[in-house]
């Protein structure tokens, strides 16, 4: 039975939810750090960014086996049961973070097609693609990522005043670096994920336009049915529901920061009329736009 790797054991009871653990293959099979469950089937209540910095081995994920080697980088999303076997000098860096407890700038990150592809889509399609859509870094690129990891380690260890802000900024810097590298991936499977990632990026920046599902599928260069399937698997939403969510978030910002009328806000955010905007806003936020504005002021 898989065991739960609890975030509290790595971040600490009151610690900031960003940390690093290094794993090396020990000759005696010993642990690399306290609570090292590398070879034990386990799942997390946090996310993990795994970087293979040396050697090779087999990554067992949800009962399927994938060979990994130096330069492989992949994301493990919380409840995915996994472990590593057949380690031959395997060296890992595990960057652990809890997105539920971090103010990550997701809107800005999703403007990077590589972020959506690597952090949202690839974990979902890893089995389908037989791990061929993973990120693979050359030695120099891996060294750049390791340099950021070392800064995370040093900042976490020193725990000086303001270290939380620095750790968050370094995590985001690492995410951006890896996302940019993923955008240059040249496998067919990676390109398929990047097409959807480019769609997410476009919607983040052009949510006010009157998109239809057919237009979005054309932008992603996939069929309507494939777009629905891929998008829902990756985000838990349809493309249109995702778009509405972006519009609602933009409307919330305008309600807090501007004196625009409801119809003006609706049109600014891409809703066809004020009544439809009010219905969608109440469905999402539980209150009308007018009440939300009063509550926020």
Question: How would you characterize this protein structure?
Answer:
The chain has 297 residues and is an alpha+beta fold. The protein folds into 2 domains: 3-182, Jelly Rolls, CATH 2.60.120.280; 242-295, Orthogonal Bundle (Arc Repressor Mutant, subunit A). Helix content is 48%, strand content 20%. The chain has 12 helices and 8 strands. The protein has helices spanning 8-11, 106-109, 113-125, 139-158, 163-182, 188-205, 213-220, 224-235, 239-257, 262-268, 274-285, 289-295; strands spanning 3-5, 18-24, 42-44, 47-61, 64-69, 72-77, 82-97, 135-136. Strands 2, 4, 5, 6, 7 and 8 form a 6-stranded antiparallel beta sheet that branches. Strands 1-3 form a two-stranded parallel sheet. Strand 4 and strand 5 form a beta hairpin. Helix 3 crosses helix 8 and helix 10 packs across helix 11 (274-285). The longest helix has 20 residues, at 139-158. It starts with a strand and ends with a helix. The relative contact order is 0.10. The mean pLDDT is 93.
Helix/strand order: EHEEEEEEHHEHHHHHHHHH
- CATH topology type of the largest domain: Jelly Rolls
Quickly give the CATH architecture of the largest domain.
Sandwich
Q: In CATH's first tier, which class of the largest domain applies? A: Mainly Beta
C-alpha-based Rg, rounded: 21 Å
Number of helices: 12
CATH homologous superfamily designation of the largest domain:
Regulatory protein AraC
Strand content: 15-25%
> Globular, elongated, flat, extended or rod-shaped: what is the shape?
globular
What is the structural class?
A: alpha+beta
Roughly what is the average pLDDT, rounded to an integer? 93
**The number of domains:** 2
Q: What's the number of extended β-strand segments?
A: 8
């Amino acid at each position: 039975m898989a065991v739960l790797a609890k975030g509290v054991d790595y971040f600490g009871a009151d610690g900031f939810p960003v940390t690093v653990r290094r794993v090396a293959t020990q000759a005696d099979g010993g642990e690399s750090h306290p609570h090292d469950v590398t070879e034990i089937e386990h799942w997390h209540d946090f996310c993990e960014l795994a970087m293979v910095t040396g050697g090779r081995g087999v990554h067992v994920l949800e009962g399927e086996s994938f060979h990994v080697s130096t330069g492989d980088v992949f994301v493990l999303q919380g409840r995915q049961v996994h472990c590593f076997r057949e380690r031959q000098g395997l060296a890992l860096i595990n960057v652990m973070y809890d997105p539920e407890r971090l103010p990550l700038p997701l809107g800005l990150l999703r403007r990077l097609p590589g972020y959506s592809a690597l952090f949202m889509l690839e974990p979902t399609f890893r089995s389908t693609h037989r791990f061929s859509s993973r990120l693979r870094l050359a030695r120099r690129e891996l060294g750049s990522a390791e340099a950021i990891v070392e800064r995370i380690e040093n900042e976490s260890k020193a725990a000086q005043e303001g270290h939380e802000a620095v750790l968050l900024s370094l995590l985001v810097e690492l995410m951006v670096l890896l996302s940019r590298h993923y955008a240059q991936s040249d496998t067919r499977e990676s390109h398929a994920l990047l097409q959807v990632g480019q769609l997410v990026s476009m919607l983040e920046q052009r949510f006010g336009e009157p998109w239809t599902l057919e237009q979005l599928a054309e932008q992603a260069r996939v069929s309507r049915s494939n777009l629905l399937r891929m998008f829902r698997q990756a985000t838990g939403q349809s493309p249109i529901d995702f778009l509405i969510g972006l519009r609602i978030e933009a409307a919330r910002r305008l309600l807090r920061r501007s004196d625009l009328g409801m119809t003006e806000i609706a049109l600014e955010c891409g809703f066809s009329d004020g009544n439809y905007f009010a219905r969608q806003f109440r469905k999402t936020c539980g209150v009308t736009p007018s009440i939300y504005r009063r509550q926020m002021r």
